[in-house]
Amino acid sequence: MSDVKVIDEIPTYQVTLFVRRFNQEDGLEARWEDFDVTVHGTDRVLDALHKIKWEQDGSLTFRRSCAHGVCGSDAMRINGRNRLACKTLIKDLDMTKPIYVEPIKGLTVEKDLVVDMNPFYEAYRAVKPFLIASDKPEKERIQSPEDRERFEDTTKCILCAACTSSCPVFWTDGQYFGPAAIVNAHRFIFDSRDEGAEVRLDILNDKEGVWRCRTTFNCTEACPRGIEVTKAIAEVKQAILRGKP
Amino acid sequence: MAKPTIHHHEYDVVIVGAGGAGMRAAIETGPHTKTAVISKLFPTRSHTGAAQGGMAAALANVEEDSWEWHTFDTVKGGDYLVDQDAAEILAKESVQAVIDLENMGLPFNRTPDGKIDQRRFGGHTRDHGKAPVRRSCYAADRTGHMILQTLYQNCVKLGIEFYNEFYVLDLVMNDGKPAAVVAYELATGDLHVFAGKSIIFATGGFGKIFKTTSNAHTLTGDGVGIIWRKGLPLEDMEFYQFHPTGLAGLGILLSEAARGEGAILRNSTGERFMERYAPTIKDLAPRDMVARAMANEVREGRGAGPNKDYVLLDLTHLPPEVIDAKLPDITEFARTYLGVEPYTEPVPVFPTAHYAMGGIPTNIKAEVLSNNKTVVPGLYAAGECACVSVHGANRLGTNSLLDINVFGKRAGIYAVEYAKKAKHVPVPKDAVDETVALLEHMRNAKGTEKVAVLRKELQDTMDLNAQVYRTEESLDEALAKIAELRKRYEHVQVQDKGMRFNTDLLEAVELGFLLDLAEVLVATAKERRESRGGHFREDYPTRNDEKFMVHSMAYKNGSKIKIDWKPVTITNYQPMERKY
Ligand SMILES: Cc1cc2nc3c(=O)[nH]c(=O)nc-3n(C[C@H](O)[C@H](O)[C@H](O)COP(=O)(O)OP(=O)(O)OC[C@H]3O[C@@H](n4cnc5c(N)ncnc54)[C@H](O)[C@@H]3O)c2cc1C
Ligand code: SF4
Ligand code: FES
């Protein structure tokens, strides 16, 4: 009764996607495979991947859930840049050329666009990403809007790994904590309610910690949440030098 | 074809689902009993993270408020189908639920004096409907994200054991009691049997039965479907909420917080049409009313756009600073996905399938019921998959994030209490047989039907026939279509034959749950020959308290659906006409 027809109005396009395929079960080397798909003007790369999976090759494998950039499932390399497939509109890419889609780098490929995220999550867990506070308040703790503002930016992280897997240091040194872990440490270090800053700063002062960052800004460019990742890392570096947040 | 390897685990408490409800429960159980949380997604990918607007609690931080007013609003908003004892608990325990989250570290927005800030939301009023009240606690328009992150952070702190990317496909019952769940490990294709003394379902909603929805691809109602297949009843399945402001054509949600901050709905003539439908609280009327009003504007030819098939959400009169500070994410959605600039242009919106009021029947201890009264010992459900019922025929905005926290916590507390005194129910030898058979059938079927085609046809028929307006005829049409799709589903084809990360196989399994739940929804909608809350029957356009002031209880009876009714618990508020 209330079929929405906006989509039908919007022009459709033919595009070619080159997708990086790998499946250890088929015994083949990793390779590019190309698919032609018809997409609508509002379609995202995720829609195109779904069209391939649903209409052409059911074995194409990738993670996804929310489809609007909030769950962090579908970070991948699209035309050489780390992005969320569900936030990348096809019409914003150069449609005269094929679209290249491959898994994010620096993490082991499990199958097609799916990588092993465990090292990434381990780095996150290593920075104690939770509030450390000894008081037991009866009501809410008081925090001024200004104090909250200090860490607001880093609360937006969705753990998509776009930043960490765009970092050249992480590619060559898998031990490096990586930007996402530092972002999540920042979120607590600069929270006026938290008492664990010292411990975290100590962890990040490690040889695999913040000092490995060479400020290439790849992470900031990659972050789909618009977090100023490099700035957060710089603030953590300064805090280490100061010995406090 | 390789047979799956089978692993066995034993826990005191097994929680299925790592969204808000599941993790809130785990925080109660983890420190006291051996707990496993099983989730098909990595916890922070759960759809609780998509929630935007806020979480209701009568903190009275910015103006006078009381839990009693909140209870009343919840009951009235639910068109009196709410169990009032449960609504009282929801409202009373809301304050502690917010404090718990703040204490765990949630970065709520603050008032100038540093307290948790609050804002308006649809249907929440002061003193029984006198005027809108500021009751929603929020963190910009990312409240769900912050809740999900905060709960996960605390699970990390407590060392909770997670099994991520494990799909629970069956509940093993023995003599009327739950013994274990069977899960499929995505990475390997292995099967795992998790025995638990207490088992909590917290698997979220099933918006994917509809085409236009704010729900994630993964919200396929597996948990509710599993309970259904075990012959346990489902309550109030006909009540599904359509949120007024989905991005037109896409369904991506723009929170009611936009209207809470002052945004206005307009039709093609620029008229603020809600003034006609709800003169007192206008754009902040409950969702079912606003969604129908919008659909009606479109039907009567006052829709906007080239096809006149949507209305407009106008934020242009709000200062850009307010938009940036309070509604940053949703305005970005409008920019990214529709290319509309909300500072200067109104945003095309239309109702989107959003929230299941119905689900697995529970009592106020989150215990699952096997009929109107009997508890299934050791089995719990909480969150969107459950029906307590605090939302009745229509959920108020901000009451679900509250529900997952209050009843998630309760599920945890009572599951521990039970696990401490109970023994494990023996797991029968054939525990995995049904699951193995299901998967083998899917993997080996030489069918010709594609999952995506069947799913799309299901979603199309549901949007067409069982959305904001329903009739006997449209529902019959949907039932006939679902019956046809069921037959075709027998011949479904799975292309990927592998064991590792076989999402092709799982999409086929998920479609089975969608078909089951869509059918129950339509069948109960057909029997409820009245209009109430989110369920609107054009052929029976008024509420009929004499006959239908009761919850529906659907039972699986072979391949048929049997529908029974259950009285509503009324404590303080007698049904009145719902006017705003
Ligand atoms: C866009 C959007 C905005 C919203 N905004 C608000 C708001 O502002 N305020 C409000 O009160 N409510 C809001 N809601 C509603 C509210 O967010 C949800 O109802 C609530 O978060 C559901 O939480 P949950 O824990 O029950 O389920 P979910 O968070 O959906 O979690 C379900 C969990 O179950 C797991 N699972 C599912 N199936 C299986 C399986 N077979 N095996 C293993 N695990 C499984 C998933 O992995 C996931 O971890 C919103 C909803 C949406 C969609
Ligand atoms: S900082 Fe940004 S890019 Fe990095 S994990 Fe978080 S959201 Fe993703
Ligand atoms: S699918 Fe959730 S971020 Fe893309």
From TrEMBL, chain A:
One GO BP annotation of this record: tricarboxylic acid cycle
Pathway terms, separated by semicolons: Carbohydrate metabolism; tricarboxylic acid cycle
Pfam families (alphabetical): Fer2_3, Fer4_8
InterPro entries, per the entry: 2Fe-2S_ferredoxin-like_sf, 2Fe-2S_ferredoxin-type, 4Fe4S_Fe-S-bd, 4Fe4S_Fe_S_CS, Beta-grasp_dom_sf, Helical_ferredxn, SDH/FRD_Iron-Sulfur, Succ_DH/fum_Rdtase_Fe-S
Domain 2Fe-2S ferredoxin-type: 13-107
Keyword 4Fe-4S: yes
Occurrences of domain 4Fe-4S ferredoxin-type (ranges): 147-169
Known EC number: 1.3.5.1
Keyword vocabulary terms for this entry: 2Fe-2S, 3Fe-4S, 4Fe-4S, Iron, Iron-sulfur, Metal-binding, Oxidoreductase, Tricarboxylic acid cycle
SUPFAM superfamilies linked: 2Fe-2S ferredoxin-like, alpha-helical ferredoxin
PANTHER family: SUCCINATE DEHYDROGENASE [UBIQUINONE] IRON-SULFUR SUBUNIT, MITOCHONDRIAL, SUCCINATE DEHYDROGENASE IRON-SULFUR PROTEIN
Family listed: Belongs to the succinate dehydrogenase/fumarate reductase iron-sulfur protein family.
Protein name as catalogued: succinate dehydrogenase
Source species: freshwater metagenome
UniProtKB/TrEMBL annotation, chain B:
Names of required cofactors: FAD
Coiled coil ranges: 468-495
Enzyme category, top tier: oxidoreductase
Subcellular location: Membrane
GO biological process: anaerobic respiration; electron transport chain; tricarboxylic acid cycle
NCBIfam families from the UniProt entry: sdhA_forward, sdhA_frdA_Gneg
Assigned EC number: 1.3.5.1
Family matches, as PROSITE patterns: FRD_SDH_FAD_BINDING
GO cellular component, one term: plasma membrane
Protein's name according to its UniProt entry: succinate dehydrogenase
Topology of the protein relative to the lipid bilayer: Peripheral membrane protein
MF terms (GO), sorted A to Z: electron transfer activity; flavin adenine dinucleotide binding; succinate dehydrogenase (quinone) activity
Pfam families recorded: FAD_binding_2, Succ_DH_flav_C
Cross-referenced Gene3D superfamilies: FAD/NAD(P)-binding domain, Fumarate reductase/succinate dehydrogenase flavoprotein-like, C-terminal domain, succinate dehydrogenase protein domain, Succinate dehydrogenase/fumarate reductase flavoprotein, catalytic domain
Record family assignment: Belongs to the FAD-dependent oxidoreductase 2 family. FRD/SDH subfamily.
Ranges of residues in domain Fumarate reductase/succinate dehydrogenase flavoprotein-like C-terminal: 455-580
UniProt keyword annotations, A-Z: Coiled coil, Electron transport, FAD, Flavoprotein, Membrane, Oxidoreductase, Transport
